[in-house]
Amino acid sequence: MEKNSTVFVAGHRGLVGSSIIRKLREKGYNNLICQTRQELDLLNQAAVNRFFAENRIDFVFLAAAKVGGILANATHQTEFLYQNITIATNVIQACADHNVKKLLNLGSSCIYPKLAPQPIQEESLLTGPLEPTNEGYAIAKIAALKLCEMHNRYHGRCFISAMPTNLYGPGDNFHPELSHVIPGMMRRFHQAKTKNLSEVTVWGSGKPLREFLHVDDLADALILLMETYNNPSHINVGTGKDCSIAELAETMKSVVGFTGRITFDTSKPDGTPRKLLDITKILKLGWSPKHSLQSGLDQTYRWAVENNQF
Ligand code: GFB
């Protein structure tokens, strides 16, 4: 990827896409193309084809997706499957038809079986049943990575896929119900602090284990992969460390400065018991995460307060 290559970041307003844009600009890439949903509806195959025909695009980061936390996924499975599979097939096929030099497709650690051996190696894909709360999303992401892999293996296309673990950071969605655990919890602790409440309720049992990666660390990894990785097989991106949701709640309490009690609402789903990625392959490429969970949460909380997210 040259500094003046034409780079299209699909999903540039989302958590991942906005971080990729920041990092590309920092690194001196100066020919970035972005489209709002009004300008280009990625669900519309004809519009996507027209866009690729009219713009000579060299590199594509496919970071556009319908995303959400455990409750959003569990209650809107059909939309998660349909929208994500449609966006992916429209963009990936257009990249093939219009001779895009390289495509990096973004997946998720939820593609792996619910009870995969930990830490989860890339080879665990399709070795067992999925976690039911995010089956729709996972099936769409598996289809997308397989489409890239097949274009790569059978048609010589440089289409690659990265599977990040649970992400967080500036630009996240802080919706009370639809968000992932970090922004959802951060909002609840912040509101409890500002309203002087005596307790905060955390969803589920607190026992599930999750691995959390700061989105700017992911963006560094993605740019490195775009610059150096050509293997048809997908590659994990994580930190190699996880913590329980109860431990996350304790850390969040101190980050936000809440002094009351933590209780657990076991009527809410726990989801998969653990999903820690094996990151041996990406470490060998020379990338490693820079943010600790504590420093990443501190920075994200400051960003959320300054940007009126609560
Ligand atoms: O982040 P989260 O929604 O994603 O939930 P998943 C992680 C864990 O945190 C679950 C608990 O056990 C939740 O019950 N949790 C505690 C909370 N408090 C909260 C809260 O306030 N909000 C939320 N959202 N959770 C998603 C998948 O699963 O992971 C997606 O549904 C995607 O497909 C994403 O892959 C990365 O890790 O359970």
Please give a structural write-up.
- This protein is α/β, with parallel strands linked by helices.
- The chain is 42% helix and 14% strand.
- It has 10 helices and 12 strands.
- It has helices spanning 15-26, 45-54, 70-75, 77-97, 135-155, 181-194, 215-228, 245-256, 280-284, 293-306, and strands at 7-10, 32-33, 59-62, 102-106, 159-164, 166-168, 199-203, 209-210, 212-214, 235-237, 243-244, 261-265.
- The strands form 4 sheets. A 6-stranded parallel sheet has the order 2-1-3-4-5-10, with helices on both faces.
- Strand 4, helix 5 and strand 5 (159-164) form a beta-alpha-beta unit.
- Helix 1 (15-26) crosses helix 7, helix 6 (181-194) crosses helix 8 and helix 8 (245-256) packs across helix 10 (293-306).
- It is globular.
- It starts with 6 loop residues before the first strand and ends with a helix.
- The site of guanosine-5'-diphosphate-beta-L-fucopyranose has 25 residues, from helix 3, helix 6 and strand 7.
**How widely separated are the two ends?**
39 Å
Overall structural class, as computed from helix and strand content, comes to alpha/beta
Strand content: 5-15%
| Multimeric status of the protein | single chain
User: Sheet bearing the most strands, described?
Assistant: 6 strands, parallel
Number of β-strand runs = 12
Strand order of the largest sheet: 2-1-3-4-5-10
What bound compounds does this protein have?
guanosine-5'-diphosphate-beta-L-fucopyranose
